[in-house]
Amino acid sequence: LILPAVKTQFVIIVAAADELTKQTALQWISTLLDIAPHEILPCADLLVAVIYNLRSSSKEIEGIAGAANAKLQAIVSQSTTSPPVNEYIANFLKLVGSRSPETRLAVLQWLALLHDKYPQCVAEHVNDIFHAIATTLSDPSDDVVQSGLTVMAKLSNNESYFQRLMRGLVNLFREDRALLRARASFIVRHLVRLMPPDVVYTSLARILEDEKDLAFAGECVQTLNLIMLTSRECAGLRRQLQRSPACAASRALFEVLYRSWCHSPASVFSLCLLCQAYTHASQLLVSFANLEITVSFLMELDQLVQLIESPVFVHLRLQLLEPQNNPCLLKCMYGLLMLLPQSSAFDLIKNRLNSVAKFELLALRAAAYVPGPNMSTIPAIPDDPTSTAAACAAAAAAMAAASTPIVRPQCGPATPEQLSHFDALQERHRLFRNKTEGGGNS
Fold first, then answer.
1. CA atoms within 13 A on the CB side of 160
2. What are the CA-CA distances from residue 191 to residues 32, 154, 155, 204, 427 (Å)?
3. How far apart are CA 54 and CA 59, in angstroms?
4. What is the pLDDT of residue 294?
5. Quick count: other Cβ atoms within 10 Å of Cβ 363?
6. H and E: helices and strands count for the chain
7. Low-confidence residues in the chain, pLDDT < 50
8. Residues 103, 277: Cα–Cα separation, whole Å
9. Between the CA atoms of 179, 185, 191 and 194, what dihedral angle is there, to the nearest 10 degrees?
10. From CA 319, how far away is CA 340, in angstroms rounded?
11. What is the rounded distance in angstroms from the CA atom of residue 127 to the CA atom of residue 155?
C-alpha cells in the first residue's frame, strides 16, 4: 500500500526546479505504475504532474513523462474500476490553457479517453469542457486543433450540443477573420471526417442564413463553398448534390444550402452548376446584371472558371457536347463569358466554348453523310465558308427532326421565392457595403 503522504511528496518533488530530482521522482512514478497501478490512479495530482512535464528542457524528463502518461492511459482504458473522473476533469480543464502544446494535446487526448470509457461522468461537465476546448480551435498546433475537434465531436452526440458546436465555430470565425482565412479549411475538413458532411454543411448554412454581419457571411460562404468543391473529404457531399435532378433528398439539401449561399453570387451560381440546375443558374445570370460588379465578385468568377476546368466539373464539360439537351448550360457558359473582363479566365471559357462549337460542326458533317431511314433528308454541308453557317443550321434542324433526343432528369427552374430571396439578400449586401464604406444608403 502506497501511503497518501508518499504520493503527495512525489507531486511536490516532480514540481521541483532541480531536473535530476524531478527525473528521479518521475522514474519512481513510472515504476510504481508497473507495481501497483491502481494505487496511483486515485491520485489526480500525480497525473497532472506527469502531464505537466511532457514539455521540458530535458529530453530524458520528456521521455519518462511520456512513457508514464502512456502507461496511465492504458491502465485507465483497461481498468474495471473507475478513477476519480470528476477530479481528473477539474484538473484537466486548468491545463487546457497551458503554454505547452504537448500538455494541451495530452489533456485533450485524456478527455477523449474518459468520454469513451465513462461517457455519463463526462456528460456532467460538458458545459465546462465545451467552453474550455473552444479556445483550442485557434491553436497554432494542428494536432491540438484536431484533438479539440475530436473531443467536441464526441460530446456533440445530441442535437443541442451539436448546434452549440456549430454556432461556436461560426462565432469563432466571425471574431477572428484571420483564423477564417488561414485555418477554416483545415478545421472544416477535419470536422467532416468526424461527422456526416451533409449534416455539418446543413447546420452551418442555416446559421449563416440569418447572419447579421453580411461581409462575414459572404466571406464564410465563399470559404465553405471552396472547401465543398475541392476537398477530398467532401467528395461524398458533391456526389450527393450532383444527384439533385433525380433525388428528392439531394434537392432538399440543395435548397437548404441555396438560401445561405445567396450571400455570395459566384458561390450560389457554382452550387447550381454542381447540382445540374442549369435553368436556375441561367435565371441567376439575369439577376447578376443588377449587381454591383466589384473586384471581389470578379475574383470569385475567376476562381469559378478555374474550378470549371477541374475534375469536379467534368460532368458539366461533357454535357456541353450535347447543347441540344442542355441549352441553359450553354447559356450559363456564354453568360459567364460576358461577365468576365478580358483575362486568362475569359480565354479559358472562350477556348472551351470554341471547342464545343467545332465539335458540333464535325458532328453535323459526319451525320450529313451517315445513311439511315430519315437521314436522306439531311443536306450535306459544303466546304464553302460563306454558305457553311446556313447549311449547318439546315442540317441541325433536319437532325433534330430525325433523331430521338436523350432525355435526362433535370432540375426545375428557380421558384419566384428563390429568386426574390437572392435579390433581397444581395440588396442587403449592397446597402451594407455602402454603409460600411461611407457611401450612404442610396
1. 3
2. 39, 11, 13, 12, 33
3. 9
4. 86
5. 14
6. 24, 0
7. 1, 3, 364, 367-383, 385-386, 388-389, 392, 395-396, 398-407, 440-442
8. 50
9. -150
10. 22
11. 10
Residue with cell 454591383: 292
Q: How high is the pLDDT of residue 374?
A: 45
Longest dimension (CA), the chain: 104
Per-residue pLDDT of 189-248, as tens digits, reads: 999 999 999 999 999 999 999 999 999 999 999 999 999 999 999 999 999 999 998 899
The pLDDT value recorded for residue 106 is 94
Alpha-helical (H) ranges within 36-141 are: 37-40, 44-52, 59-78, 85-95, 101-117, 119-123, 126-134
Judged on CB neighbours under 10 Å (0-12, 13-18, 19+), 127 is exposed
Residue 432's pLDDT is 87
* Residue 149, all three cell numbers: 475537434
Residue 97 confidence (pLDDT): 85
* Whole-number Å distance between alpha carbons of 20 and 61: 9
Helix axes 101-117, 59-78, angle to 10 degrees: 10
Cα angle 335, 338, 339 (rounded to 5 degrees) comes to 90
Cell output for 346 = 475569359
Nearest to 134 by CA among 144, 122, 124: 144
Residue 59, number of CB atoms within 10 A of its CB: 8
Give the C-alpha separation, 172 to 239, whole Å: 29
Would you say 100 and 54 are in contact if contact means Cβ atoms under 8 Å apart? yes
What amino acid is encoded at 401 in this protein?
A
- Enter the DSSP assignment of 275: T
Q: How far apart are CA 420 and CA 412, in angstroms?
A: 16
CB atoms within 10 A of CB 174: 17
Got the DSSP string for 53-68? TTS-S-HHHHHHHHHH
Tell me the C-alpha distance between 368 and 377, whole Å.
9
Q: What gap in Å lies between CA 54 and CA 101, rounded to an integer? A: 9
Q: From residue 317, how far is each of 47, 272, 303, 330, 352 by CA, in Å? A: 59, 15, 17, 10, 9
pLDDT for 442: 45
